[in-house]
Amino acid sequence: MTTHRQRIMQVMRGEMVDVIPFVPRLDLWWMANALGGTLPESFRTMSHDDIARAEGWALYRMVPDFVNMIRGPEDILHRAIGLFSFQQSLYRWRFSNDIEVKLKDADGQQIIEYHTPLGMVYTAGGLTEAMKRAGASLGWTQAHIIQKPEDYRVVAYIFENLEVFPNYDGFLAYQAQTGEDGIVAAGGPSLAASPMHHIQKEFLGHTRFFYEYKDHEREMRDLAASVAVYFEKVLKVLEESPAELILWGANYDDTITYAPFFAREIQPWLRKAGERLGARGKLVATHTDGENFGLMDLIRDSGVHIAEAITPYPMTRVTIGEYYRRWRDKLVLFGGIPECLLLEESASDEEFQAYMDDLFRSVVPGDRLILGIADSVPPHAVFDRVRRIGERIALQGRLPLEAGAFRPLSEGDLKAAAAASVPPAGAQRFADLRELMIAGDGDVLAGRIRELLASGTQAQEILDEGLIAAMIIISEQFQSGDIFIPEVLLAARAMNEGLAVLDPHLREGSAARQGLVFIGTVAGDLHDIGKNLVAVMLGGVGFSVRDLGINVAAEEFLKQVEAGPPDILALSALLTTTMPEMKKIIGMLEERGLRGKVRVMVGGAPVNAKFARDIGADGYAPNASEAVKLAKQLLKA
Ligand code: B12
Hints:
Number of domains: 3
CATH topology of the largest domain: TIM Barrel
CATH architecture of the largest domain: Alpha-Beta Barrel
Shape: globular
Radius of gyration: 25 Å
Structural class: alpha/beta
Distance between the termini: 65 Å
CATH class of the largest domain: Alpha Beta
Strand order of the largest sheet: 1-8-9-10-11-12-13
Bound molecules: cobalamin
Oligomer: single chain
Number of strands: 18
Number of helices: 25
Mean pLDDT: 89
C-alpha cells in the first residue's frame, strides 16, 4: 500500500498517483485551541499530529516546527535578526567569539544587544501569551536592528562571521517522528529567500526598508553581500544533508516584493537554491502564501520545484484554476484551499461548497497537485469543514480527474482586477510636481514650491491641483501596477516636505483638510504594511491621519475616539483571529454612545464586504486606493 509519504513524494517529483493527497496543517489551529482550552472534546488529549493521523490525513511538518518551537523560547531568541536555532534544523550557527550578546528586560519587552568590534546594535520585541493564543508563533520586533547608517556595517560583521555547521541528527530524529505518515520540509537559511529579502523582512521594518533602499542603497548592497556569506554557508550544509525537501523563502506579495524587486533581488537566489539543491537530488519548495497576482510568471520561472501554501481567491486575486493553468508545467502546486473558507464569518456553507465544486473542475487532470489549507487551518476553523474537504478529496480526488476544464471562479472579478486604470486627466499644470513626487525628490519639490509661491501661485492651488492631484494619480498608477510601493512611500515622504513649505501659506493650515482619520491595526495583530499604505494614501489626498499603530487594544481605540473624535475610524486586521476585535470595537462604540459620532471603515486581507456588513461597519475597501474613495464617500454620507 502506498504511504502518505510515498504518495506526496511521487507528486512532488511530477508522477501521476492514485488520489490527490490532502495535507492540512493543523499546528497553528491546534496550538491556539490547546492554549485556550477549546480543542474539540474528542481531541483534548491528542497532539496535532495524532489528530491528523486519526482523521487519515497526511502530516506536513516544517522546520520551523511551530508547535515545538514555543517550548524552547531560546530557539527564537535572535528572531529579530532572522536567525533561529531549531533543534530540528539541518544546520546550527554560532556567533564568532568576538561578539557578545547581552539580554535585558524592559516593560515586558526583551532587549538584545550585540556587542561587536565595530560597535553595538540591538533589537527589542517579544511574544505575549495573548499573541500565542491568537495563533502567532514568532513574536514581534519593536525596535529593528538597523536604526542608523552606521549599523549596516555592524550587522554585516555579525553575518559575515557566523559559523555554520551541520545538525543532521536533529533533523533525522524529527523526520523519524513523522515516518511514513507525511513529509518534513527542512528550512533554508532564513524565512526570506535571499539576502536582500532577509534585510527587507528582518532588519528595518517593511516601510522604512523602502526609504533606505533609496537613501542608503550602497550600504544595503554591502550588507546584502555579507548576509550572502551566511546564505552560502547554509546552502553548502543543505547540499550535503540527507533531507529530500527544503523550504526556501516565504511571504511574497506583489505589493511588498513587487515584480521588479522580485526579479532583481529574490529570483536569482531561488534559482540558485533550485539548481544547486536540485543537482543533489533534493526538491526545493517556496512558501507562496501571499498575493501573487503580479508575480505569477516570476515565481513560475524561479527554478524551484514546488509552490507551497498557495492561497487563492477569494483570499487573494488569483483563482485556483488560474494557478493550476499557469504554474503546473513548471511547479508542483501545494495548498489551494484558502483558510477563510473554513470560517463561518467569512464564508457561508454554500460558498464553501461552491468553492469545492469549482476546485475539482479547475484542476483537471489533477496531477502535480497536493491539496492543503493555505497556509494552515486557522484557530477558529469550523473543524467539520476540514473533515468534509478530506471526505470529498477521498471520493472525488481520484486521478486523473475528468470533466470540466479550467473555469475561473469569478471571471468578472478577475477582469476588473486586471483592467489597467487610466490615470485621470488634469494635474497637467503641475506635472513637474508629480514627477518630483514620484522620484521622491523632497528637496527639489520643496524648492519648486517656493518658486511657485514666489511667482504668485496660490498655496491652495498648489496643494489641490499639484500635490493632492499628483497623489491621486500616483494612487491610480499604483493600483494598476504601473508603479510600485517604494514610489508611493517616497512620494508621500516628498509630499510631506512640500507640505511643510506650503503650510504657513494655507489659510487654515494643511491639517484641517478633508477630514480627520484615526487608523490602527487591532489587538493581537502586528501586520502594518497595508495599514501604513492606507494611511499614506489618505494623508496624500488631503485627510489628516493619526496612525495609532499596531496591536492596538479596543480600549485604546475607544479612548482615542472619545478624545478626538475623528470623522473616520479605520481598522485593519490581517488575521482571522483578530477580525472579531473589529466587532468588539464597534460594539463598545455603541455602548458608550460614540457610534453616531464616527464612521468606521475596515480592511485587511481576510476582511470582506460581507463581514463588514455583519459587524455593522460603515464600509470596507479591499485596497488603499479604494480606501481613499470610501473615506471620501463616508464623509459625504
Ligand atoms: C507580510 C506578512 C507577514 C509579515 C508582516 C510584516 C508587517 N510588518 O506587517 C510577518 C512575517 C511578520 C507576518 C507574521 C504573521 N503572519 Co502574516 N502575512 C504576511 C502576508 C504574506 C502579506 C501581508 C501584507 O503586508 N500584504 C501587503 C499589503 C499592502 O496588503 P494588505 O495588508 O492586505 O493591505 C491592503 C488591503 O488589505 C487594504 N487594507 C489593509 N488594512 C486596511 C484597513 C482599512 C480601514 C481599509 C479600508 C483597507 C485596508 O489596503 C491595503 C493596501 O492596499 C500575508 C498574506 C496575505 N494574503 O495577506 C500573510 C498573512 C496575513 N499572515 C498570516 C499569518 C498566519 C501570520 C502569523 C500568525 C505567522 C506565524 N506563524 O507567526 C504571524 C502573525 C503575527 C501577528 N500576531 O500579527 C496569515 C493569516 C491567516 C489567518 N488565519 O488569519 C496570512 C494571510 C498568510 C496565509 N496565507 O496564511 N506576516
